[in-house]
From TrEMBL:
<dbReference type="GO" id="GO:0016874">
    <property type="term" value="F:ligase activity"/>
</dbReference>
<keyword id="KW-0436">Ligase</keyword>
<keyword id="KW-0269">Exonuclease</keyword>
<keyword id="KW-0378">Hydrolase</keyword>
<feature type="domain" description="Metallo-beta-lactamase">
    <location>
        <begin position="26"/>
        <end position="174"/>
    </location>
</feature>
<dbReference type="GO" id="GO:0004527">
    <property type="term" value="F:exonuclease activity"/>
</dbReference>
<keyword id="KW-0540">Nuclease</keyword>
<protein>
    <submittedName>
        <fullName>Ligase-associated DNA damage response exonuclease</fullName>
        <ecNumber>3.1.-.-</ecNumber>
    </submittedName>
</protein>
<dbReference type="InterPro" id="IPR001279">
    <property type="entry name" value="Metallo-B-lactamas"/>
</dbReference>
<dbReference type="InterPro" id="IPR050698">
    <property type="entry name" value="MBL"/>
</dbReference>
<dbReference type="InterPro" id="IPR036866">
    <property type="entry name" value="RibonucZ/Hydroxyglut_hydro"/>
</dbReference>
<dbReference type="InterPro" id="IPR026360">
    <property type="entry name" value="Xnuc_lig_assoc"/>
</dbReference>
<dbReference type="Pfam" id="PF00753">
    <property type="entry name" value="Lactamase_B"/>
</dbReference>
C-alpha cells in the first residue's frame, strides 16, 4: 500500500506532482508548470507550458514574455475550473486573495486532497477576488508574516494616515513606495474607496501594470505619469513609485516629498529607518499571524506543510494545538517588498 501523499513531493526547486509530472511554482524552467500568481518568486518564464489563471498569464506575458496567446506555451484556467492531468490527477484553481489572478491550487489524487496556497491574505481587497476556504487533507501554507508580532491594522486606518499627511504637509507631496504588482494597485483602489478622487501620479515603472489591472476590470480612477510634469503641478499630490525609487535621484524632481512605504514589513521600525521612511504604512498582501492560524483552523487539514517565511513559530503553534505539521525546504522564495 502506497504511503499517504507520496504522490506529491516538496523538492528544493518546488512542489512536484509525480503522477502528472508537473511542478507548482518551480524555481527553474520545467516542461509543465502550474503557477499560483505573477510575483517573481513564484512565476518564471522558460517553461514548456504554463498553466495559470488568464490574469496571471497576462501578468507573466507583461513581465517575463510568456506567450499568453499560444496554446503550446500557455494554458489559461478560470477559478473553479478543474483540469484532468496525467496519472489521474485533478487540479482546480481557487481564489487566494493575494493579487490579481492569484490562486490556490487544489490537487486531487487517489482519494486525497492537497491545497497549495501560494501566497494569500484574508483581508478584503477591491482589486482581486477573496480567499476561499477549501477543505483538504494537506494544506500547504506560506508563513511570510508567521510571527505573533505581525498583526496588520485595518487598511482604513493606514489610508487615513496617508490622507492626513497630504493635508497637513502643505507645499509637499506624498511619495508612496509600493510593490509594482498588487500593492500599488491596492493602495490606489483603497484611496478611491476612502473618497480620494484627484489624480494619482505614477512613476513610469508602475504605469503598464496599472493599465493591465484596468484592462481586467479594476477601476483605479484618474492616473497620470509623472514624467514631464512641472514640479509645481505635483504640490499636495500623491505619487506612487517602486520602493527602490523612494530615495534615488528620480525623487528629487518632486516637491519636497514625504516618503511613505506601504508594506507589512513597516511593522518593524528598523526596516522603516533603513529605508529612510518618514511615513510607514502597514499594508500587506499576505496573511498576518492571526489570519494564518485562523485559516489553518478553518481548513482543519490532517497535515499542514509550511513554507516561504517564518516556519518555526507556525510549526510550534501547530504543535501546541495538536496539529501535524512540517516545514518545507524550498529554494528561490524571497521577501517581496510587501
Amino acid at each position: 500500500m502506497a504511503a499517504a501523499f507520496s504522490w506529491i513531493r516538496a523538492e528544493p526547486m518546488g512542489i512536484h506532482v509525480a503522477p502528472a509530472d508537473v511542478w507548482i511554482d518551480p524555481a527553474r524552467p520545467v516542461e509543465t508548470a502550474l503557477v499560483t500568481h505573477g510575483h517573481a518568486d513564484h512565476a518564471r518564464g522558460g517553461h514548456g507550458r504554463t498553466v495559470a489563471t488568464p490574469e496571471t498569464l497576462a501578468i507573466m506575458q507583461l513581465r517575463y514574455g510568456v506567450e499568453a496567446d499560444s496554446a503550446v506555451r500557455a494554458a489559461p484556467v478560470t477559478y473553479g475550473e478543474t483540469l484532468e492531468l496525467r496519472g489521474g490527477v485533478r487540479a482546480t484553481f481557487v481564489p487566494a486573495g493575494h493579487v490579481l489572478g492569484s490562486a490556490q491550487i487544489l490537487l486531487e489524487h487517489a482519494g486525497e486532497r492537497v491545497v497549495i496556497t501560494g501566497d494569500y491574505k484574508r483581508r478584503a481587497d477591491p482589486t482581486c477576488p477573496p480567499f476561499e476556504v477549501t477543505p483538504c487533507d494537506v494544506f500547504i501554507t506560506e508563513a511570510t508574516f508567521g510571527l505573533p508580532v505581525f498583526r496588520h491594522p485595518p487598511i482604513a486606518d493606514e489610508m487615513a494616515k496617508l490622507l492626513s499627511a497630504r493635508e497637513n504637509d502643505q507645499g509637499r507631496c506624498v511619495l508612496v513606495g509600493a510593490y509594482a504588482l498588487g500593492k500599488a494597485q491596492r493602495v490606489i483602489a483603497e484611496l478611491r474607496a476612502a473618497g480620494y478622487s484627484e489624480t494619482i501620479w505614477l512613476h513610469g515603472a508602475m504605469e503598464r501594470m496599472c493599465r493591465l489591472y484596468e484592462d481586467h476590470g479594476v477601476d483605479l480612477g484618474d492616473l497620470k505619469a509623472v514624467a514631464g510634469v512641472p514640479k509645481a503641478a505635483l504640490v499636495n499630490s500623491i505619487v506612487i513609485c517602486p520602493p527602490s525609487a523612494l530615495n534615488d535621484r528620480w525623487s528629487r524632481r518632486l516637491p519636497d516629498p514625504v516618503t511613505a512605504m506601504a508594506s507589512g514589513w513597516m511593522r518593524v521600525r528598523q526596516r522603516a529607518r533603513q529605508r529612510n521612511v518618514e511615513l510607514p504604512l502597514i499594508i500587506s498582501d499576505h496573511a498576518d499571524w492571526d489570519e494564518l492560524t485562523h485559516t489553518i483552523a478553518q481548513v482543519n487539514p490532517a497535515e499542514t506543510w509550511i513554507t516561504h517565511g517564518r516556519e518555526e513559530a507556525l510549526l510550534r503553534w501547530c504543535e501546541l494545538t495538536q496539529r501535524k505539521a512540517r516545514a518545507l525546504a524550498l529554494v528561490g522564495y524571497e521577501d517581496e517588498d510587501d
